[in-house]
């Protein structure tokens, strides 16, 4: 049996009826299932040692292959490489427990243009038809019930009504956790956030029950050798011009700046400056002037002076990007350099990986001499809360 996990949140979602009753206190049952999932994740989460691979994909992927007690993953019932009504009806009739799809179900599936995967929710008669499309790999999921050989659509759970057609970058899984059928929404992704939430929506008593959440906070794990993308190839980087001493010193300095920025976004510049001599601080300020770069804090506070007043966004490391980086001093071999630190972006997507560019003085301007990519992923689990 394999856990059915799709790469994104439902674009279209419909649900089914089930002949399964929840315990009287559904909230406690959901919280109990969440606590069990937290234990499984903690027991299987990779360490932050340099030699230990970090987690990739969703949080459940760290243990789904181990078949842990109290966790039954959903099963794939059939797949269609190319959806059509005729193919769906034919496959449904060949199942061990065959069903005939209702006209409403077939109409809901008419918009599918990609491969379709049909899976079950253990402990219930709920099935899910899923497809993934687009460059952002957004998932479209249609849930339905099979009762007395008939497949019918049912209402959407209240927790998912605001998300239909709106979200990508999430993973949806189906499982029975401690005997409770749940849909698990996992928002762990490749972005710069070091927090993630598992949202469990239980099914029982012929209806969806109130969801509960397990929220995780992670410490960062840095690795210059392992990044989400091959940024040098994607961005057509030229070779670094680090001088006769090579790029090792500059790369180590870049990693150190990333660590400090992640740890103290608002205080990193002052901290680095405190370790410089007066002459070095003066040179850094000169480099900033001739570089003539915008301040990311100005952009967060509302842009130029003509913009309408707005509440400033929190000055966190996650808000720094390669388009609006933080400028910091870098000193290598007593040479004062100007570093730009921000997360890589592709279109609207912001990645956890850091981009550090290094510029040196050249007459009355600056010249870029090197670029470095510093990988960042979720490291050790710092804390977990359930509600």
Provide structural commentary.
There is one protein chain. The protein has 387 residues and is an alpha+beta fold. It has 2 domains: 5-220, no CATH class; 224-377, no CATH class. It has 8 helices and 17 strands. The strands form 2 sheets. Strands 1, 2, 9, 10, 11, 12, 13, 14, 15, 16 and 17 form an 11-stranded antiparallel beta sheet that branches. The chain has a 6-stranded mixed beta sheet with strand order 3-5-6-7-8-4. It is elongated. The two termini are 30 Å apart.
Q: Name the overall outline.
A: elongated
Order of helices and strands: EHEEHEHEEEEEEEEEHHHHHEEEE
Enumerate how many helices there are, as a single number: 8
Question: What is the helix content?
Answer: 10-25%
Give the strand tally. 17
Number of domains: 2
Instruction: Report the major sheet.
Output: 11 strands, antiparallel
Structural class: alpha+beta
Whole-angstrom Rg = 25 Å
Q: What portion of the residues fall into strands of 2 or more residues?
A: 25-35%
Mean pLDDT: 82
Spans of at least 5 consecutive residues whose pLDDT stays below 50 are 1-28, 161-166, 302-311
Report the end-to-end length measured between terminal Cα atoms.
30 Å
């Amino acid at each position: 049996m394999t856990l059915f996990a799709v790469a994104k949140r439902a674009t279209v979602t419909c649900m089914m009826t089930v002949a399964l009753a929840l315990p009287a206190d559904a909230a406690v049952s959901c919280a109990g299932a969440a606590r069990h999932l937290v234990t499984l994740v903690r027991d299987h989460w990779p360490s932050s040692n340099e030699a230990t691979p970090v987690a990739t994909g969703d949080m459940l992927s760290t243990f789904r292959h181990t078949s842990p007690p109290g966790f039954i993953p959903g099963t794939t019932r059939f797949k269609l490489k190319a959806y059509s009504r005729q193919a769906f009806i034919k496959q449904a009739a060949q199942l061990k427990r065959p069903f005939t799809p209702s006209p409403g179900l077939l109409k809901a599936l008419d918009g599918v243009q990609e491969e379709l995967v049909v899976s079950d929710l253990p402990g219930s008669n709920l099935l899910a038809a899923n497809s993934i499309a687009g460059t952002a790999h957004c998932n479209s999921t249609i849930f339905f019930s099979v009762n007395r050989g008939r497949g019918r659509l049912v209402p959407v759970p209240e927790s998912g009504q605001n998300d239909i057609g709106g979200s990508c970058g999430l993973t949806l899984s189906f499982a029975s956790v401690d005997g409770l059928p749940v849909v698990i929404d996992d928002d762990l992704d490749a972005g710069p956030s070091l927090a993630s939430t598992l949202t469990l929506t239980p099914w029982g008593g012929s209806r969806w029950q109130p969801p509960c959440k397990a929220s995780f906070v992670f410490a960062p794990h840095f690795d210059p050798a392992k990044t989400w993308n091959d940024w040098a190839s994607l961005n057509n980087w030229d070779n670094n011009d680090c001088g006769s001493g090579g790029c090792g010193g500059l790369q180590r300095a870049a990693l150190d700046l990333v660590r400090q920025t992640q740890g103290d976004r608002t205080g990193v510049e002052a901290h680095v400056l405190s370790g410089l001599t007066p002459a070095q601080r003066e040179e850094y300020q000169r480099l900033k002037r001739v570089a003539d770069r915008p301040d990311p804090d100005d952009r967060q506070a509302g842009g130029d002076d003509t913009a309408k007043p707005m509440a400033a966004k929190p000055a966190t490391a996650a808000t720094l990007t390669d388009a609006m980086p933080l400028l910091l001093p870098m000193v290598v071999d007593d040479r004062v350099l100007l570093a730009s630190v921000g997360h890589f972006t592709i279109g609207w997507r912001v990645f956890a990986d850091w981009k550090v560019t290094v510029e040196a003085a050249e007459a009355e301007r600056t010249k870029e001499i090197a670029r470095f990519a510093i990988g960042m992923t979720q490291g050790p689990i710092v804390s977990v809360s359930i509600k």
